[in-house]
Design goal:
It is found in: Cell membrane; Membrane. With 365 residues, the protein is mostly helical. It has helices at 2-6, 22-52, 64-69, 78-92, 98-124, 132-153, 181-199, 207-224, 229-233, 244-262, 271-288, 292-298, 300-319, 329-335, 340-360; strands at residues 164-166, 174-176. Helices cover 66% and strands 2% of the residues.
Length: 365
């Protein structure tokens, strides 16, 4: 909005020329969403506490301490992230950019699915919310539309870029997937969304790694969408994809504001409203910037959480034995006696290390 309004006066007022710079607008987006979250956070928490009464239902088969310590804490705090993020993006983004809308609408769409899931859990006071098959069907539907738009918005030069898989560590190497890129992209977005959802089990555990991943992909989006830096680094040049930086900047600011209230002991949980939306944002950003494989590295913590659940379920069904004391893996360490802050901070450190490894792929080619 600011971009369209103010850049037209850049010749007359040099100050407005700042709005032509993505770096400036990203900084503005971060500050705006953070302030919105700070200001409206307490009000939203009060409303959620009144409306929800008993708060988020706690799994009876989960860690024993959760039943006492986390009972009564309201959920759906992801609404604070979504509202802050959407308002900030609309204010600072180029609203004619298709990639911006892809990431933003995937975030909103997955947030709506998560909201429905949270609402059913709270209203029924049952940890089981929306039917799993219906949830996946809706997620894949949104993801398919998002991937299709990304394909249409991405130039097919070099050959097969629009429907290709860029290989990290190799300069300008793209594996053409053809029509199969659509289901592949869907798996990236849906997988990312649900992996973040599985990670959201301790106070502050999910939001910080999400912000770390978002910051990493902000840098990637900026470079991939730059006609000078992309060829220099040997990464695919995707014109317009740098605008994704604005959406991710808004996510970071909103995440910082949310963390203020989600820090241990949490005053509010993000719920599926937040976790599904944030994971969807990361997945769609990876597809838009042609860095799907790098997402698995930068978001390796989320991958680890998801894999731990898959391994646990498969092992129990095949052998009747569990590999972990409890899955996802952060609960395994709780069962081993690790304090919640210890698990959270160590997982944050892992997220930082993985982000640095992922970003190194930009140069090591």
């Amino acid at each position: 909005m600011f971009y369209e309004w103010l850049t037209q006066y850049a010749d007359e007022f040099q100050l407005f020329n700042l709005f032509n710079y993505i770096s400036f607008r990203t900084g503005g987006a971060i500050l705006t969403s953070m302030l919105i979250a700070f200001i409206f956070g307490p009000k939203l928490i009060r409303v959620l506490r009144v409306k929800q009464g008993k708060g988020q239902p706690i799994r009876q088969d989960g860690p024993e301490g959760h039943i006492i310590a986390k009972a009564g804490t309201p959920t759906m705090g992801g609404l604070l992230i979504l509202v802050s993020m959407v308002i900030s993006t609309l204010l600072w983004g180029d609203l004619h950019n298709p990639f911006l809308w892809v990431v933003l609408l995937v975030t909103i769409g997955f947030g709506v699915i998560g909201f429905a899931d949270d609402y059913l859990k709270v209203s029924r006071q049952n940890p089981k919310g929306l039917n799993g098959k219906i949830k996946l069907l809706l997620e894949f539907g949104i993801a398919a539309l998002a991937v299709y738009v990304c394909v249409q918005a991405t130039p097919d030069t070099p050959e097969n870029l629009a429907t290709g898989l860029a290989v990290p560590f190799l300069k300008n190497t793209v594996i053409g997937l053809g029509i199969m890129f659509i289901p592949f992209g869907c798996l990236v977005i849906v997988g990312s969304s649900n992996a973040v959802n599985l990670t959201d089990g301790l106070d502050g555990l999910a939001i910080v790694p999400v912000m770390i991943a978002a910051a990493s992909f902000s840098a990637i989006a900026y470079l991939v969408g730059n006609s000078i830096y992309a060829p220099y680094l040997g990464v695919p040049y995707v014109p317009g994809s740098s605008e994704v930086t604005i959406v991710l900047g808004s996510l970071i600011g909103a995440g910082l504001g949310f963390l203020w209230y989600n820090a241990p002991p949490a005053m509010v949980f993000m719920g599926d409203t937040g976790s599904l939306a944030l994971g969807g944002a990361l997945g769609s950003a990876a597809v838009a910037t042609k860095h799907e494989i790098v997402l698995a590295v930068i978001g390796g913590l989320f991958v680890l959480e998801a894999v731990s659940v898959i391994v646990q379920v498969a092992s129990f069904k095949l052998t009747g034995k569990r590999v972990f004391r409890m899955a996802p893996i952060h609960h395994h360490y709780e069962k081993k006696g690790w304090a919640e802050p210890t698990i959270v901070i160590r997982f944050w450190i892992i997220a930082v290390i993985l982000a640095m490894i992922g970003l190194s792929t930009l140069k090591l080619r």
